[in-house]
Amino acid sequence: MSEGMTLTARLDHADRLVSADAGFMSLNDRAGGAIGELLGVPQLATVVRLARRLHILVQRSLVIADAESDLECWVRAAPTVDGVTLSIAPLRERPVWRSAQVATQLAPPPAGADWVWEVDAALRIVHLPTDAGTAHGLDPSALLGKPLTELFTLLPDAGGGMTLLEAMAAQRDFDGQAAMVRGSGERVMLAGTARRNAMGVFAGFVGGVFLSAEPGETSADEPVRAFNARLEGVLRGPLSRIIANADSINAAADGPIDAHYVDYAADIASAGRHLMGLVDDLADIEAIERDDFRIEFEPVDLSDVLRRAAGLFAVRAADAGVTVDIGGADGPQLAIGEFRRVLQILVNLIGNALRYSPRGGTVWLRVQRDGAQVVAIVADQGKGIAPEDQARIFAKFARVDPREPGGSGLGLYISRRLARAVGGDISLDSAPGEGARFVLSLPSAQT
Fold it and tell me: N or C: less crowded end of the chain, CB within 10 Å?
């Protein structure tokens, strides 16, 4: 390719190549592209997508790998009514730079994970166990090289955050990332250990999946699965794409942009996560309010579940400057319940306690036998709840102060419904300025 020769192309509103001059066609063909398809050169496709999405002129220098050469170019993408006009001005051509292979250091998977996955620094899947994928209706081999979001729908926490994305930005370990397996719709928790190459550069995660229930569902679950499938297509899928695109703009993943767009993107992502949390709560309500809703009664070690729930919030508690003090969970305390539902209740209670705890405060977690019951206690040092509000906060969509940042007002409603479905309950002891103490009681499995 000659220096000084400008290449041009025109793309439609879906970023597909409509027309191009001979020089551009030759470059695109060598990269595997064609007329009517997306561009074969990933860097050019990224610039085109950014210009179209933001409706602004994007100009930048790029280095494009072409056969045995690297092309240093100046790229200009201008949005039009029908799509984007792209022009490339080659500046110079140089031999491709080849580096020695840098080995990636081994990283241990999260302890206790039910199965393990691995991604590179761009969150592309590089390892997925065959049996784990097929158990959820997925083709593991087809997912290799695909974004992690092709395997999981990431769900925001009660505060609207995404633990995995925050860990990726900080290049550190993470835990407590709620997710849904795309093939089966099963809710799981994710944790991950950061990998680094021999030079100490972040190279991705060795991740673990923590299942919230034993595999297999009864026929009574089919309407709920159908409802979840509808939510996935109508709401979760579009919301996930909105959040992902907003995060991409906010992080300036495609290059520097105006600060106003960064602020707008952050607002969009935050609102999207709030809506996603509401969608998940609606799915739970659809399940627990059905006449045929059933709990799988089984012995559950409440000590073990409390430890697991606390572990999911280790990173969040550290970031918030809150100490989690867990006691009485050394030995087994067997109760009657369903593991995934009891975990769901405790995750909600602990998440609430952390949200309302001041920096430097402590959240106390205790488990103990109380006659014919086993109880788990979650206590915080927040501002407390007035007596007249204590019954109301367990109602659907109820919040003490709607002006405060928080969830949808469904968490405590769902948690108490689940506790009562297994013959247990949730009680509250609180006073203004003295924090709150929530007690989950379940029937003891020990005589």
Answer: C
Smallest Cα–Cα separation from 211: which of 112, 336, 131, 353? Answer: 112
Selection from 321, 310, 306, 434 nearest residue 380 by Cα:
434
Residue type at 246 in one-letter notation: A
Q: Is the pTM of this model over 0.70?
A: no
Query: What is the 8-class DSSP label of residue 357?
Result: P
| Contact call for residues 381 and 431 (beta carbons, < 8 A) | no
Please provide residue 356's backbone torsions phi and psi, each rounded to the nearest 5 degrees.
Answer: -100, 5
Which residue, among 415, 290, 440, has the nearest Cα to 345 in the 3D structure? 415
What is the C-alpha to C-alpha distance for residues 182 and 135, in angstroms, rounded to an integer? 12
* CA-wise closest residue to 397 among 406, 384, 388: 406
How far is it, in rounded angstroms, from Cα 316 to Cα 312?
A: 8
Cα distances from 37 to residues 5, 33, 291, in angstroms, run 24, 7, 50
Total number of domains constituting the chain: 3
Q: Within 10 Å of residue 212's Cβ, how many Cβ atoms?
A: 19
pLDDT tens, position by position, 378-436: 999 988 888 888 778 887 766 665 555 555 567 888 888 888 888 899 999 988 888 99
> Residue 234 carries which DSSP code?
I
Structure tokens at 108: 């241990």
Please indicate, yes or no, if residue 106 is contained in any of the structural domains: no
Among candidates 118, 162, 133, 154, which has minimal Cα distance to 241? 154
Q: Is there a domain that residue 176 lies in?
A: yes
Question: What range defines the domain where residue 31 resides?
Answer: 7-95
